[in-house]
Specification:
Oligomer: single chain
Number of strands: 0
Structural class: mainly alpha
Radius of gyration: 21 Å
Helix content: over 70%
Order of helices and strands: HHHHHHHHHHHHHHHHH
Strand content: under 5%
Number of helices: 17
């Protein structure tokens, strides 16, 4: 009985917070509390999506800071507020009931201006990372409809730029997104369809390998090796990698950081075997 009362109270609080989003005076506090407690409300995504005006309100929060992107004037407060709105959109993006609706409304495109920023200040970095988190939540579902949608947009070049110049965490999430796109058959076919697309991806990966020689990151290297291995599963990709795979990947001093990561070491062995390098 007590549990039911508690559940009812939580549901009541949830509905009140969603209603508070519609009111300018209570919106910021509601965004903060909902983003903090989103894991506690399994039905939050459909409630947000289907409640009157809520999605428009979240979009208003996003579009409202576009003028602060260029020239870069984003404050920490404004970044935190819009990131709370993005956290709620991530719930919608990852929920099976609302994911397809999220795509059909072209919602990811509203995040691309954030991914296109280059300022390295903390508010911008947090904004890019949170936006990547929404796209990462989409691709994590292993849904071909998601990949097909993303391939019609500029997500790959946006991710590639972040992979080259972002923080380690942003690079890792961006590389994960590219990895998930490549793991889909349509994604692999798309990237390997032209030399321009293939080398856009492989050149960035190669530059990242060079960067890891100075600043190692096992987590990032793992995603990169998985990308290379997947590229090698395409006939044209495999042939191209025979000429451009970085030598560092066969250098025991470079790869010794993987000694406790059996799965990644196995991927690396499969990769070097696939491209005909037996040095590992």
């Amino acid at each position: 009985m007590g549990e039911e009362v508690g559940d009812a109270a939580d549901k009541g609080r949830l509905y009140q917070l969603v209603q508070d989003l519609a009111v300018e005076e209570t919106r910021e506090a509601a965004l903060l509390e909902l983003s903090k407690r989103r894991e506690q409300f399994p039905d939050l995504a459909p409630i947000l999506w289907y409640s009157y005006g809520t999605t428009a309100t979240l979009l208003q929060e996003i579009v409202g800071i576009y003028p602060l992107l260029s020239p870069p004037q984003l404050t920490a407060h404004a970044s935190n507020r819009v990131c709370n709105a993005l956290a709620l959109l991530q719930c919608v993006a990852s929920h099976p009931e609302t994911r397809t609706l999220f795509l059909k409304a072209y919602m990811p495109l509203f995040l691309y201006p954030f991914l296109n920023t280059i300022s390295k200040t903390r508010p911008f970095e947090y904004l890019r990372l949170t936006s990547l988190g929404v796209i990462g939540a989409l691709v994590k579902m292993d849904d071909s409809d998601v990949i097909n949608f993303l391939l019609t947009t500029e997500i790959i070049p946006l991710c590639l730029r972040i992979m080259e110049s972002g923080s380690e965490l942003s690079k890792t999430v961006a590389t994960f997104i590219v990895q998930k796109i490549l793991l889909d058959d349509m994604g692999l076919q798309y990237v390997c369809a032209t030399a321009e697309r293939f080398f856009a991806v492989s050149n960035v990966l190669n530059n990242m390998v060079a960067g890891l020689a100075k600043e190692p990151s096992v987590r990032l290297l793992k995603h990169m090796i998985r990308c290379y291995l997947r590229l090698s599963e395409n006939v044209r990709g495999r042939e191209a990698l025979r000429h451009c795979l970085p030598a560092q990947l066969t250098d025991p001093n470079f790869t010794k950081c993987l000694q406790d990561d059996n799965s990644t070491r196995r991927w690396l062995q499969q990769l070097t075997y696939a491209v005909g390098d037996q040095r590992l």
